[in-house]
Design a protein that fits this description.
Helix content: 25-40%
Number of helices: 11
Structural class: alpha+beta
Oligomer: single chain
Radius of gyration: 39 Å
Strand content: 15-25%
Length: 391
């Protein structure tokens, strides 16, 4: 046995000395010291050794093991040093060379526009409230005074997740849709603040008055083109309180336009119709490119006596189509029926306070396109780094 162990040691030390790579050294370690190695097999055969010889044989095996492990570790350090030395000879680093700056991302133009818009309204005392993108027909349509036969409820305009089943006693308001407007958040807040105190989906019980904006993604069944998308973003505002008037709405939108588009911006309200509000209006702002004149000055090159001459000429403004005004949002006073359905007012209680309010809806992509003079809405979603790095 002693002779066998000595032969194993000599052969193993020879292979360790001849190993030129860490991989070859590891193969030697496994073949001798591994679970199926030569020394391990000897230990497994100890049951055949007489009891009085076992301690002596075990001591000899452990002695050989310790010696080989020491040789392997020494060789491992030697190979590691040679590898580092070789790398030092073939690789080098110029510590005086400037480093490569990592490319850093930045905010998307939509996010920049949203944060600018939120900053304006938070500065006027508004709170930001978000709501679910999957909504009930009741919140998305019924409580906003949108009738059953309204074109917006057709499948051509609204994405339905599930439709009501009359045979099971379900009603239209049980339909589940991808919300077409963030006005559904306003309905939930009014329900939570009105006499019904109806709360759900993270909307706790509230108190009047209400002063909020609700940004978020909405969905409509539109074809994708330069100005439309089936998924886009809105920011809707709502103010409910006592003695709230159209003058408050006009003043709020004036302040928003000046803060967002520039201090010289003016607003104009044009009569319109929205089921949610009465009276309703669409809001135009003076064109930020021509400043309301409908004309812009531009440098052009013309040939004069055989030479190119640069001169300033006046041209029609393409941003506003020479009108001097650009439409940006819709608004109006909250319809009395909406205030009644949401529990804000109670016509059966003559002693209850009477509240009024106004609402407005802003297309985030629209104001972003206008503010940054982007011609095609699709550029906001194509993730073209050549476009995005301009912001």
């Amino acid at each position: 046995m002693k002779e066998m162990l000595e032969n194993i040691r000599i052969e193993a030390e020879k292979r360790i000395a001849e190993a030129l790579t860490p991989e070859a050294l590891d193969e030697t370690r496994v073949s001798v010291l591994g679970k199926k190695g030569e020394l391990t097999n000897i230990l497994k055969g100890m049951k055949d050794v007489s009891p009085e010889d076992r301690p002596k044989i075990g001591q000899m095996v452990n002695s050989v093991r310790d010696r080989l492990e020491a040789s392997i570790n020494e060789k491992k350090q030697s190979l590691k040093a040679k590898i580092i030395e070789k790398k030092m000879e073939t690789e080098w680093l110029d510590v005086t060379r400037p480093g490569v700056r990592a490319v850093r991302g930045h905010k998307h133009p939509n996010q920049i526009a949203l944060e600018d818009l939120e900053r304006v309204f938070i500065g006027m005392g508004y709170e930001v409230v978000e709501g679910p993108e999957i909504e009930y027909d009741r919140m998305n349509f019924k409580l906003l005074n949108i009738p059953e036969d309204h074109p917006a409820k057709d499948e051509q305009d609204t994405f339905y997740i599930s439709r009501h089943d009359e045979s099971r006693g379900e009603k239209t308001e049980d339909d589940i849709v991808l919300r077409t407007q963030t006005s559904s958040v306003q309905a939930r807040v009014m329900l939570a603040a009105g006499r019904f105190k109806e709360t759900s989906k993270g909307f706790p019980e509230r108190s009047l008055p209400i002063k909020l904006i609700s940004p978020g993604r909405v969905f409509r069944s539109d074809e994708v083109d330069a100005t439309h998308s089936p998924s886009f973003h809105q920011v809707e505002g709502l103010v409910i309180g006592e003695n709230v008037t159209m003058a408050d709405l006009k003043g709020t939108l004036d302040q928003f336009a000046k803060e967002f588009f520039g201090p010289d911006t003016k607003t104009k309200l044009r009569p319109h119709h929205f089921p949610f509000t009465e009276p309703s209006a669409e809001v135009d702002v003076t064109c930020f490119k021509c400043h309301g004149t409908g004309r812009v000055k531009k440098m052009v090159e013309e040939k004069e006596n055989g030479k190119l001459v640069r001169r300033e000429v006046e041209m029609a403004c393409t941003a506003c189509k020479s009108s001097g005004w650009i439409e940006i949002l819709g608004c109006g006073m909250v319809h009395p029926d909406v205030l009644e359905m949401c529990g804000i007012n109670d016509k059966n209680n003559p002693d209850a306070p009477v509240y009024t309010g106004f609402a407005f809806g802003i297309g985030l992509e629209r104001v972003a396109l206008l503010k940054y003079e982007i011609a095609d809405m699709r550029l906001l979603y194509e993730n073209d780094i050549r476009f995005l790095e301009q912001f």
